[in-house]
Amino acid sequence: MRRRLITGAVVTTTGLAFLAVIPGSAVAEPGNTVEYTVVAADGVSATDAAKAITAAGGTIVTSNDTVGVYRVSSADSRFGSKATASAALIGASERRALGRAPNGIEKIDRTAKGAGRGKGGPARLDPLDSQLWGLAMVRSDKARKIEPGDRGVTVGVLDTGLDASNPDLAPNFNAKLSRNFAPDIVDVDGPCEVASCLDPIGTDDGGHGTHVAGTIGAAANGTGLSGVAPGVTLVELKGGQDSGYFFLDPVVNALTYAGDVGLDVVNMSFYVDPWLYNCTANPADSPEDQAEQRAIITGMKRALEYAHRKGVTLVGALGNNHEDLGKPRTDVSSPDYGADPYPRPIDNTSCWDLPTEGPHVIGVSSIGPSKTKADYSNYGTEQISVAAPGGWFRDGFGTDTYRTVGNEILSSYPLKVLQEEGLVDEFGEITPDGEGTVLKECTKAGRCGYYTYLQGTSMAAPHASGVAALIVSRYGVPDHRRGGKTLAPDLVEKRLYQSAAEQACPEPRLQSYVREGREAEFDAYCSGGEQFNGFYGHGIVDAYAAVGGR
Asked: Do 21 and 94 contact (CB within 8 A), yes or no?
């Protein structure tokens, strides 16, 4: 059973489980060494936080003093409750029992200096670009005549990894800046591929991050396909597990690192597990779970604020739960790991879907080729910023394009993952199961790249991230401290909104998806006017207008 369909592609899921503290669970029994993520209370020094962790029976493994987040190990089955009771700590979230064998959770199935950096000149399109309706919709093909993206602009892909062997990603990939913050966890990822359990930089055993990276900045190099900003630099920030879960600790570390090294844009197509909504004191949750969620809220807000303050433009997928984020339904999917989910009525004033509802995050909804809001996409005037192509398999009702993969987003994907899914064979050839959904393009030198279709707000966000990177490329100033270019995130955000193509709500405003085969729960009401509304925010991102085109 899929954990959720939120900010990953609808045909995959993303987000790494944040293991809940479950009293009496197998991972919390005496004799087991357990890892936790612990968040210090506001105003507590690193020294005092360390003392409190030690007093509760924990040992600090790694620390991020910048935002007061610590990875802690303990053999004390009561460590979680002791940490929560400490005035110096907000709470502790159980991560995993060390050395446990895999528990049978499998990877999620899927259903259905490079070229182009010169200023001006003709637009350069690659062989598969004709299938990128999203590229045309945001007018990236026209934008690159003015600004294809500057090599000195860096975009962090905070995701499951990045397959740098793909010939479209290799020219723009910066291995020196890239980092892996999420070692494999056998409980969810299966056996480690390397002794350290830390996958090498430039690899992606999940696939999601590679797909996102291609949409942002695949090189316009005459092979495969190109991204929205084909001249920018891509940086891998592995904060997600191979299985698609996202823990607080790796995500926070990735965000603070992005700020410290001066990345310009960070794409976040996920939510932090195991809670779809993190609430300060939801009556449906146990005291321990309430404390855990308060810790997640605090840790994420601190990290997002830090990255923004350091000059990072933050872009997030709005989510695939087909709901108005200002009027959330009862959460029936949480916790998505560590215990069985249960119904949790959500109070909008005290609950957050993170990171998309966090500070300074540009929230992106998903639309199909017809510019209709995709049935799965979250929406709502409270959190939306802009809309972007994310794919919608069911678009084109009544035409021959209805329920075809061409309605989804084509982008790069790792060969290894396609082989594991039986879509490509051991010789690198597409299997019958992969025909029509997987494409292969090889360079004259014989290096081959693989591409596939996915849909979700995870695919919409990288379109916006690519446009944001073009804005920094076009209007940024030299960064004399770190090199490259820089532009204040607030200015990037303002330009992104001003240049977006305004899109009015549909008429009637209540969008029904019944004819596409969805139940009434998917019906969505679009509030607001043409300049800003709940489906499109400030409008559909427009790369050409963003860099000065008309």
From this structure: yes
pTM given for the model:
0.91
- What distance in Å separates the CA atoms of residue 550 and residue 543, rounded to the nearest whole number? 10
In 232-372, alpha helices (H): 248-261, 287-309
Is the preceding omega at residue 274 within 30 degrees of 0, hence cis?
A: yes
Residue 169, SS3 per DSSP: coil
The hierarchical CATH code for the domain 127-546 is: 3.40.50.200
pLDDT tens column, 5-23: 233 333 333 332 222 222 2
What CATH number was assigned to the domain covering residues 33-97? 3.30.70
User: Are the CB atoms for 128 and 451 separated by under 8 Å?
Assistant: yes
Task: Round to whole Å and give the CA distance between 289 and 383.
Answer: 25
- Residue whose pair of structure tokens reads 């030299």 in the numeric block: 478
Question: Using an 8 Å Cβ cutoff, are 134 and 463 in contact?
Answer: yes
pLDDT of 262-278, one tens digit each?
999 999 999 999 999 99
Domain ranges of the chain: 33-97, 127-546
Phi, psi of 91 (to 5 degrees): 175, 175
How far is 304 from 382, CA to CA, in rounded Å? 18
Q: Among 423, 37, 516, 489, which residue's Cα sits nearest to residue 259?
A: 489
Query: Using the 8-state DSSP alphabet, how is residue 373 labeled?
Result: B
Query: Encoding tokens for residue 95?
Result: 């991560």
Listed residue (175, 232, 283) closest to 474, CA to CA: 232
Tokens describing residue 100: 């446990």
For helices 489-499 and 457-475, angle between their N-to-C axes, nearest 10 degrees: 110
8 Å CB contact between 154 and 307: no
Dihedral class, residue 154 (left if φ above 0, else alpha if ψ from -120 to 50, else beta): beta
Count, residues in the chain: 550
Q: Which residue has the higher pLDDT, 275 or 105?
A: 275
Residue 152 has pLDDT above 70, yes or no: yes
Contact 181, 237 (CB under 8 A): yes
Retrieve residue 13's tokens: 């899921």
Shortest CA distance to 183 belongs to which of 106, 259, 98? 98
55 to 24, 29, 148: CA distances (angstroms): 22, 19, 55
Gap between the Cα atoms of 42 and 90, Å rounded? 8
Sheet architecture: strand order including 59-64: 59-64, 69-74, 34-40, 89-97
| pLDDT at 157 > cutoff 50 | yes
Q: 476 phi and psi, to 5 degrees?
A: -70, 160
Note the pLDDT of residue 124.
61
Q: pLDDT grade, residue 96 (50/70/90)?
A: low
Contact (CB, 8 A) for 450 and 413: yes
313-317, strands of its sheet edge to edge: 179-180, 233-238, 154-159, 265-268, 313-317, 361-367, 386-389
Buried b (16+ CB within 10 A) or exposed e, 47-60: ebbbebbeebebee
Higher-pLDDT residue of 486, 34: 486
Angstrom distance (rounded) from CA 5 to CA 109: 12
